[in-house]
Design a protein that fits this description.
- The protein is an alpha/beta fold and 250 residues long.
- It is 30% helix and 25% strand.
- It has eight helices and twelve strands.
- Strands 6-5-4-7-8-11 form a six-stranded mixed sheet, sandwiched between helices. A two-stranded antiparallel ribbon has the order 1-12.
- The chain is globular, with a radius of gyration of 20 Å.
- 31% of the residues are buried.
């Protein structure tokens, strides 16, 4: 079994194999761990804080079952710079982390139950992109995990607000040369719209500023209702997801 799992918010204990992170008469205290953003403030150990000056969360052991829906962006921009191949490997890692909890793949054809790590082949990229797939994404089961470059045009704040009941986690995948393109004049073509634009140094500087603002908006909107992580193509997947709070030890 994969030794990491997707970190989830607190929920009511149900029969299953996931340790709970909430108090209750039938649950046993397990350990203290360092406080992480998203932990329930009710479980902060203030006595430990008074002794050490550091925040710790009380962890309780119980049983609960989680449910996940995985969605993989297959829009045209994902075909560039090796993003889709990297995103497939990322989705495979997320599937291994989600199992044996109840896990589904969502694509244009609908929801598919995934029962084994070998079922990663059923994680078909959705060519419509996140904005066009919003209707199906709202009907996801459990917590929604999105793998996308996040480059669709649209109202991303409204997008995540509409998905708030699904507590979406956005795993954004970008290529290094998208974040830092070569500083030279060139003609760019938008693969989503087909529009061609002549880019000089001034336009490139403006684009970098716009991208920085866009990434900031995406992160804030995703974290407000669920979670967020940002990976570059080629980056080691598990360490990056652990560092950004998406994965935790089982």
């Amino acid at each position: 079994m994969f030794r990491y799992r997707i970190r989830t918010p607190l929920r009511r204990p149900l029969p299953g194999g996931r340790q709970s992170r909430r108090t209750g008469e039938s649950l046993d205290f397990m350990e203290l761990r360092g406080y992480a953003p998203g932990d329930d403030p009710r479980f902060v150990d203030w006595k430990a804080y008074a002794r050490t000056g550091r925040l710790y969360t009380r962890v309780w052991e119980g049983e609960e079952r989680a449910r996940f829906t995985l969605w993989l962006d297959g829009s045209p921009s994902m075909e560039l710079h090796g993003k889709l191949d990297y995103a497939r490997e990322l989705a495979r890692t997320l599937l291994a982390a989600a199992l044996p909890d109840e896990t589904f793949a969502l694509d244009k054809a609908g929801l598919h139950r995934l029962r084994r790590s070998a079922d990663h082949a059923r994680l078909a990229p959705d060519p419509r992109g996140p904005m066009a797939a919003i209707g199906e994404l709202r009907r996801a089961h459990g917590q929604l995990v999105l793998v996308s470059d996040g480059l669709d045009e649209g109202d991303w704040v409204g997008f995540f607000r509409s998905l708030a009941p699904r507590r979406p986690i956005l795993i954004q995948v970008l290529a290094p040369n998208e974040l830092e393109p070569p500083p030279r004049e060139a003609e760019w073509r938008d693969v989503e719209t087909g529009t061609q634009v002549q880019v000089d140094r001034a336009a490139l500087a403006a684009w970098r500023g716009a991208l920085t603002t866009h990434l900031r908006v995406l992160e804030r909107a995703a974290r407000a209702v669920g979670g967020y992580a940002h990976l570059r193509v080629g980056e080691a997947i598990v360490p990056a997801l652990r560092r950004q709070g998406v994965l935790e030890w089982r």
